[in-house]
């Protein structure tokens, strides 16, 4: 064995023994060890310890927006860490990167989203938004407004309130620890939300749930502008506006979970901008630092801030790493690079290249039935028969198998396991991807589907 090989083997043994992995089957992992051990990356590529190079087709967890090996971010982290890695922001303490980033985020955010509360990630951001919403209603003299509505197929994270808002069943099988008072509505029903009771889907839509529970008990509605982990579901035009109108009409806060969609992913800086909607609270994480540091937060509209700053007690909420100096410095640099290098525009342009690739895949493979892309957030849906929209039998793990074939060919994509018999593959590469790299990705998907077709016959 080479030195490198024995090192990889040693790490695999240690991993099996000591590292309990998130969202991983523990029994299989304890037996088989890590699937891949990453060591370095550049742009859309990551290498494993064997030196094999993979295309990172989902930006890891949809977060590495600027791609791997971005040395300016590394340099920024080094500089900030060398001066002041971290300071508390409790009891009025502050630091320059946290303040500068707050100003920058506010300048980028739509409408009057005019201040920020920092967290270390997306789940914490959503839990914070829930607590801010309830706190706001308490201050408004309406403490009974405590319930939340989320959408079916939503993913909002795994802390206890976020887990409850998440509706993907897999995330409830682990210690279903949720809070009460969260309801799940059928997604993306514009007419229902606009009040059309004759719509056959009316029962179980947001408006129906509000009528049944009473608007005076509902604190907020949370949704991803475009659902990510649930299968990349893009709402129809008019839907988010309808929800915004509904919230205004009934006095309910609109919470947008932009953890995936923020910072250029959809071809605009924020996902809600695709429909010109301003939420009351906007949760972000992931792309704010392109994964180079752990940071999330909630952007807050002026009317909520105005209410909160009237409060004379202590806002007793916050994380040790709220306003982390290094994380905030990295985020600022990340945003500076996104703007300087026209990354958001690139995401929009590459959407067209992706769509061309998808049309090719559709024309060549009968199973490629539905495709969708908004910026570089995209998905392919596989069906047994695209003419009749006949899904695969549930015994056929089409998305998992195509995912495996892609992996063998050194492309990482994300098989989505939501919905019985549904076979969705999510594709969301780093926003720095170019035309030729998209073609490379499409050609691997093409070969992988061909390989799967051979397995089927
Ligand atoms: N919200 C959305 C839409 C997400 O996709 C995620 C993570 O995938 C989260 C929240 C949770 O973020 P985190 O894993 O940083 O807690």
Automatic annotation (TrEMBL):
<dbReference type="InterPro" id="IPR049704">
    <property type="entry name" value="Aminotrans_3_PPA_site"/>
</dbReference>
<dbReference type="Pfam" id="PF00202">
    <property type="entry name" value="Aminotran_3"/>
</dbReference>
<dbReference type="GO" id="GO:0008483">
    <property type="term" value="F:transaminase activity"/>
</dbReference>
<dbReference type="InterPro" id="IPR015421">
    <property type="entry name" value="PyrdxlP-dep_Trfase_major"/>
</dbReference>
<dbReference type="InterPro" id="IPR015424">
    <property type="entry name" value="PyrdxlP-dep_Trfase"/>
</dbReference>
<keyword id="KW-0032">Aminotransferase</keyword>
<protein>
    <submittedName>
        <fullName>Aminotransferase class III-fold pyridoxal phosphate-dependent enzyme</fullName>
    </submittedName>
</protein>
<dbReference type="InterPro" id="IPR005814">
    <property type="entry name" value="Aminotrans_3"/>
</dbReference>
<comment type="similarity">
    <text>Belongs to the class-III pyridoxal-phosphate-dependent aminotransferase family.</text>
</comment>
<dbReference type="InterPro" id="IPR015422">
    <property type="entry name" value="PyrdxlP-dep_Trfase_small"/>
</dbReference>
<keyword id="KW-0808">Transferase</keyword>
<dbReference type="GO" id="GO:0030170">
    <property type="term" value="F:pyridoxal phosphate binding"/>
</dbReference>
<keyword id="KW-0663">Pyridoxal phosphate</keyword>
């Amino acid at each position: 064995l080479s030195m490198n090989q024995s090192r990889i083997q040693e790490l695999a043994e240690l991993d099996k023994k000591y590292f309990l992995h998130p969202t991983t089957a523990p029994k299989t992992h304890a037996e088989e060890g890590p699937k891949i051990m990453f060591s370095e990356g550049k742009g859309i590529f990551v290498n494993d310890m064997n030196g094999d190079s993979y295309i990172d087709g989902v930006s890891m967890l949809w977060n590495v927006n600027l791609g791997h090996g971005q040395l300016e971010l590394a340099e920024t982290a080094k500089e900030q860490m060398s001066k002041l890695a971290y300071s508390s922001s409790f009891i009025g303490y502050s630091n320059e990167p946290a303040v500068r980033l707050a100003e920058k985020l506010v300048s980028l955010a739509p409408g009057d989203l005019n201040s920020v509360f920092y967290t270390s990630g997306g789940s914490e951001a959503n839990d914070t938004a829930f607590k801010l919403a309830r706190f706001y209603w308490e201050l408004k003299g309406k403490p009974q407004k405590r319930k939340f509505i989320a959408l079916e197929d939503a993913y909002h994270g795994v802390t206890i309130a976020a887990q409850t808002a998440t509706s993907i069943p897999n995330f409830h099988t682990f210690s279903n620890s949720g809070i009460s008072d969260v309801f799940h509505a059928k997604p993306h029903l514009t007419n229902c939300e606009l009040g059309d009771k004759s719509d056959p889907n009316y029962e179980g839509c947001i408006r129906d749930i509000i009528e049944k529970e009473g608007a005076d008990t509902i604190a907020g509605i949370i949704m991803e502008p475009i659902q990510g982990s649930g299968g990349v579901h893009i709402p129809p035009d008019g839907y988010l506006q309808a929800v915004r109108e509904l919230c205004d009409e009934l006095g309910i806060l609109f919470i947008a979970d932009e953890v995936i969609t923020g910072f250029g992913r959809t071809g605009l800086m924020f996902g809600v901008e695709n429909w010109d909607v301003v939420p009351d609270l906007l949760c972000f994480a992931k792309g704010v630092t392109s994964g180079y540091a752990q940071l999330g937060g909630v952007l807050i509209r002026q009317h909520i801030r105005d209410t909160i700053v009237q409060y004379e007690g202590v806002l007793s909420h916050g994380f040790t790493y709220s306003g982390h100096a290094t994380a905030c410095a990295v985020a600022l640099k990340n945003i500076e690079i996104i703007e300087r290098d026209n990354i958001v525009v690139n995401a929009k342009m590459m959407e067209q290249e992706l769509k061309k690739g998808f049309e090719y895949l559709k024309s060549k493979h009968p199973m490629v039935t539905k495709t969708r892309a908004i910026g570089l957030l995209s998905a392919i849906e596989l069906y047994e028969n695209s003419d009749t929209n006949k899904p695969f039998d549930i015994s056929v793990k089409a998305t998992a198998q195509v995912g495996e074939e892609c992996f063998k060919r050194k492309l990482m994509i994300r098989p989505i396991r939501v919905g019985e018999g549904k076979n969705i593959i999510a594709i969301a590469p780093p926003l720095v991807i170019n035309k030729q790299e998209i073609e490379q990705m499409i050609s691997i998907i093409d070969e992988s589907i061909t390989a799967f077709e051979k397995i089927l016959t």
